[in-house]
Amino acid sequence: MIVYGDSMSGNCYKVQLVLNLLGIEHVWQEMNIAKGETQTPEFLAKNPQGKIPLIELDDGSVLSESNAIIGYLAEGSMLIPIDAYNKAKMYQWMFFEQYSHEPYIAVARFIQLYLGLPEDRLAEYHSLHAKGHKALAAMEAELAKQPFLCGSQFTLADIALFAYTHVAHQGGFDLTHYPQINKWLLRIKQQASFVPMKG
């Protein structure tokens, strides 16, 4: 399996983390978006959207979108609840990550970390914080009741939301006011075969 990704990307890190937690053999192909490596004819032939992460299986088939990839990789593992309700709760939080969390926390991080807070993006940057903090508050409330987002079981929901939450400070989000999130971050870092984000 070949995995195309950027080690500093939270979406790519989700995939990297699942691969390591489950001990799945793979070849990591580092991609530089800034240098246009996802827009070459060769890469666009694999993914016409020109996005990473992307996995290429031994038979040549490919799969994109980070949460779809980690769902495929974790099939049949303890990272996905067996109980139908708990599995649905896992997906609920994964959809929450893509629609209510990532668009604010990841984009603010991109503007600050990758772009260096350019003047023409400052208004957008500051506007992202209210909705980003709303997402963090929802997580804080849930984690006050249980160790992980789906109860006592560590699942893909935790991985999906850990990816950008643990680097939220790189987008100007102060996590000191979220004690339950901070305890949760530590619990995830203590998982066997955990690997930190590179870069």
Q: Globular, elongated, flat, extended or rod-shaped: what is the shape?
A: globular
Q: Which consecutive residue ranges, at least 5 long each, have pLDDT under 50?
A: none
Tell me which CATH architecture of the largest domain applies here. Up-down Bundle
Number of domains: 2
Radius of gyration: 17 Å
For the record, the CATH class of the largest domain is Mainly Alpha
Estimated structural class:
alpha+beta
* Individual helix count: 7
Instruction: Describe the main β-sheet briefly.
Output: 4 strands, mixed
Instruction: Give the tally of β-strands.
Output: 4
User: CA-to-CA gap between the ends?
Assistant: 22 Å
Q: Write down the CATH topology of the largest domain.
A: Glutathione S-transferase Yfyf (Class Pi), Chain A, domain 2
Strand content: 5-15%
The averaged pLDDT comes out at 96
Strand order in space, largest sheet: 2-1-3-4
Structure description:
There is one protein chain. By secondary structure, the protein is α+β, with helices and mostly antiparallel strands. It folds into 2 domains: 2-73, Glutaredoxin, CATH 3.40.30; 84-189, Glutathione S-transferase Yfyf (Class Pi), Chain A, domain 2, CATH 1.20.1050. It contains 7 helices and 4 strands, in the order E-H-E-H-E-E-H-H-H-H-H. It has helices spanning 10-21, 41-46, 66-73, 84-114, 122-143, 156-165, 179-189, and strands at 2-5, 27-30, 54-56, 62-64. Strands 2-1-3-4 form a 4-stranded mixed sheet, covered by helices on one side. It is globular and about 45 Å long. The two termini are 22 Å apart. The mean pLDDT is 96. Residues 1-81 form the GST N-terminal domain. This is Glutathione S-transferase family protein. Residues 83-199 form the GST C-terminal domain.
